[in-house]
Design brief:
Layout (H helix, E strand, L loop, with lengths): L2 H19 L2 E3 L6 H11 L1 E5 L2 E5 L5 E11 L4 E12 L1 H5 L5 E7 L2 E5 L7 H13 L6 E13 L2 E13 L8 E9 L2 E9 L5 E10 L2 E10 L5 E10 L2 H7 L13 E10 L2 E11 L2 E12 L2 E14 H6 L18 H4 L3 E12 L5 E12 L2 E11 L2 E12 L2 E14 L16 E12 L2 H6 L2 E14 L3 H10 L12 E14 L2 E10 L3 E10 L4 E10 L5 E9 L4 E4 L1 H4 L14
Parallel strand pairs: 6-8, 7-8, 18-19
Antiparallel strand pairs: 1-3, 2-4, 3-4, 4-5, 5-6, 5-7, 8-9, 9-10, 10-11, 11-12, 12-13, 13-14, 14-15, 15-16, 16-17, 17-18, 19-20, 20-21, 21-22, 22-23, 23-24, 24-25, 25-26, 26-27, 27-28, 28-29, 29-30, 30-31
């Protein structure tokens, strides 16, 4: 080859390279049909309009369409993109065949038609999965900075924003593999999906990681007409109420749980999820067992049996926003009973040890929670507590006059001295005995229920001590000088052989007629009333020497949670001219 020919060849090669690197704009009418057909074949999307098309040959052959609109043939999926880039394979192009191995959608806005009007994640995913499954020759599809609008009957049900997603290239019958990031309801989430398109026994996996949760499922799908999914499920969240709120659910009882870590062998069949060999860690407390979650119409149902070594029931109860009677200057507190019974629950939990509200500890605990439409029942079926046993039940159900509430509690052979360390707020009281409580009330607000309470309550103790009250010192002082009885006497303690009280409650008022405490040398009796709506107690009584020679009148009054017991000054001081001006005698 002569020098002149070499120079001409090099110039021609450089020219071809420069021409190949240059994008060539061509009119829409002159785009060959097989270019658009190639894109449609590899995406399943029909190009309905575009503003401009460009073709570049080097470094790799590619087509760029600007302001392009597209739609699936059945109209279930449609959208538009600022730009569509299709990268062609070089070898097929050399033999005159156009085939694209990658198609990028730049800033697309995609509309997906979904069935129904419920905020159901499975319905939202059904259309895009059906679209991808139906593709016979799929290129790698890349979505950059996109948005997806799920619509039902023309109404937007949900929006995915900031989508950066890659759907891998695949052949027919191969599974769909996709991964990337999306922003749903303000939370950025990393997602990865392996979804089978064929086969009776096919592997699948799904994971979603965000600031609210870490979810992963690995398993298999069996069956095509009625698929069943089996595999290993793991879920962790910093706050279960926040996670439910992200999905648009606000179950009241979910507020009891904060941090949750769950692992289980899962089976998904229709609208039911069955979890076996489940291990749930609730704020550090582990429970093992089986759980079933299902949905019938708008109502979710949860059932299961769980067991563990320890559980803080007091913490769970404390997180509930239970309706409480407001102060007189505040407005009424609605019960919102429909919200409390919006989902069906049948849950049984047994633990070796549990902590109740206030710090009380119990062992060998069995609990039950039953919730149906118009009915709420929570029960402490059994528990061993401080040498005795404890049981309790709360039942609420709809009634013509509002909500009917029933409360029952039974403590048998409880040794109070064993609970002093756990219950510092308990009056300094020791001894062993029983407590029984049965209350019924009805109303539309918490105030109405408390004001209508009717029932009975009783407590009986024996062989104990009452701290903070020196009744024997009070009697001795009053015997020497009645005025001395008015001095400070709340020091020391008083032993008793028996103590007890019985109350009859009617319309929110408790009447106590036979409260008493007795020891070898004294006897204390009290009688009066307590207003449950006002949380106030007023009682009067007498402290007597055993021989009946001396009586000191007493008054018990104040808030129910902290009443004050003191000598009755008005009764102690007689009118002038009395032979014993400062002492009442029999």
């Amino acid at each position: 080859m002569t020098r002149r020919v070499s120079i001409l060849a090099y110039c021609l090669a450089i020219g071809l390279v420069l021409l190949g690197l240059q994008s060539w704009g061509i009119a829409v009418g002159r785009i060959e049909r097989h270019v658009i057909a190639g894109i449609e074949d590899r995406t399943g999307l029909k190009i309905t309009s575009l503003e401009r098309a460009e073709i570049a040959l080097l470094p790799l052959p590619r087509v760029e369409l600007s302001q392009v609109a597209f739609a699936q043939h059945d109209g279930m999926l449609a959208g538009k993109a600022v730009q569509l880039k299709a990268r062609a394979r070089l070898l097929p192009l050399l033999v005159g065949r156009l085939s694209f191995d990658r198609i990028d959608l730049i800033s697309p806005e995609i509309d997906i038609a979904v069935a129904g009007t419920e905020d159901d994640l499975t319905e939202w995913l059904a259309t895009p999965l059906a679209y991808l499954t139906g593709l016979q020759n799929q290129s790698r599809i890349v979505i950059i900075g996109g948005s997806v609008f799920a619509r039902a009957r023309g109404e937007i049900r949900t929006i995915l924003r900031d989508i950066n997603l890659i759907v891998d290239e695949r052949e027919p019958q191969e599974p769909i593999a996709a991964g990337g990031t999306v922003n749903w309801r303000g939370v950025a989430t990393d997602v990865n999906l392996l979804w089978p398109t064929a086969g009776e026994q096919a592997r699948l996996s799904f994971s979603a990681t965000s600031a609210l949760m870490n979810l992963r499922f690995d398993g298999t799908r069996s069956g095509l007409s009625w698929p069943v999914y089996n595999g290993q499920l793991s879920l962790s969240t910093r706050s279960l109420p926040e996670l439910f709120g992200w999905f648009g659910e606000t179950p009241r009882l979910a507020a009891t749980i904060g941090q949750l870590n769950l692992t289980a062998e899962a089976q998904v069949k229709g609208s039911e999820i069955s979890l076996s060999n489940a291990s749930a860690i609730l704020d550090g407390d582990r429970l093992d067992g089986a759980i079933t979650l299902g949905k019938a119409g708008p109502r979710w149902s949860l059932s299961g049996t769980l067991a563990g070594a320890a559980l803080d029931l007091g913490r769970l109860y404390g997180r509930l926003d239970l309706p409480k009677p407001a102060r007189s200057e505040a407005g009424p507190t609605p019960l919102e009973f429909e919200a409390w019974t919006a989902h069906d629950i049948d849950l049984r939990v047994s633990v070796d040890a549990a902590r109740l509200g206030g710090g009380a500890r119990v062992t060998e605990v069995a609990t039950q929670l039953l919730v149906k439409k118009g009915r709420f029942e929570a029960g402490l079926l059994r528990a061993a507590a401080y040498g005795g046993s404890a049981k309790g039940r709360l039942l609420a159900s709809t009634a013509p006059t509002g909500v009917e509430v029933r409360l029952q509690a039974n403590l048998d052979r409880i040794n109070l001295a064993q609970g002093v360390a756990d219950l510092p707020g308990l009056p300094r009281l020791s001894g062993s005995g029983n407590l029984q409580l049965a209350l019924d009330g009805t109303g539309t607000t918490a105030e109405e229920v408390v004001a209508s309470l009717t029932g009975k309550a009783s407590i009986a103790l024996r062989q104990g001590e009452l701290g903070g009250f020196a009744f024997l010192d009070l009697l001795r002082r009053a015997e020497r000088s009645p005025m001395a009885a008015l001095r400070e006497w709340r020091q020391g303690k008083t032993a008793f052989d028996s103590a007890g009280a019985t109350a009859t409650i009617a319309n929110g008022t408790a009447t106590i007629t036979d409260a008493q405490m007795a020891g070898p040398t004294y006897r204390l009796t009290l009688a009066g009333q307590a207003s449950l709506p006002e949380s106030w107690i007023e009682m009067s009584g007498q402290l007597n020497q055993a021989n009946g020679s001396l009586t000191v009148p007493l008054v018990l009054s104040g808030p129910l949670d902290a009443p004050s017991l003191a000598p009755d000054v008005d009764a102690l001081l007689r009118p002038a001219g009395s032979t014993q001006p400062t002492l009442l005698t029999r």
